[in-house]
Write a structure and sequence with these properties.
Helix content is 81%, strand content 0%. By secondary structure, the protein is mainly alpha-helical. The termini are far apart.
């Protein structure tokens, strides 16, 4: 076993640890928003690390382009998915509002509703 194989094995173990941390966080955190954070951040980093290990093990152009495509689609879809799930959880009250530090979305929704009410006011 040479040094490259040991490094690749270390990267795979790091990826497994990050994926396990994402799973544990998704099970243990108290509400939807923190679970989404736990499920997306380490999972994407874990995927990046294992894809790096694959590229180091098989450094061919076909593998590199496939890895770049996989990582690109993952980086484009994961944040958007988490964002949409978070907004859906917020609007259906499926989260704990006492854990929110700052409620920017609630303020924006209230401002939008106030502006809509002013536009619908027949006295104006």
């Amino acid at each position: 076993m040479n040094l490259a194989e040991i490094g690749i094995g270390g990267l795979i173990l790091l990826s497994a640890f990050l994926s396990m941390a994402a799973g544990v966080g998704a099970l243990r955190f108290p509400d939807v928003l923190t679970r989404l954070h736990a499920a997306t951040k380490p999972q994407v980093l874990g995927l990046a690390v294992v894809l790096l290990a694959i590229v180091l093990r098989v450094p061919a152009w076909g593998v590199v382009t496939t890895v770049v495509l996989i990582m690109t689609f993952q980086l484009l879809t994961q944040p958007m998915t988490a964002h949409m799930l978070g907004r859906a959880a917020y609007r259906t009250d499926a989260l704990r509002r006492d854990l929110l530090i700052e409620d920017d979305l609630g303020r924006d929704i209230a401002e939008h509703e106030d502006a809509r009410d002013r536009d619908d006011d027949p006295a104006r």
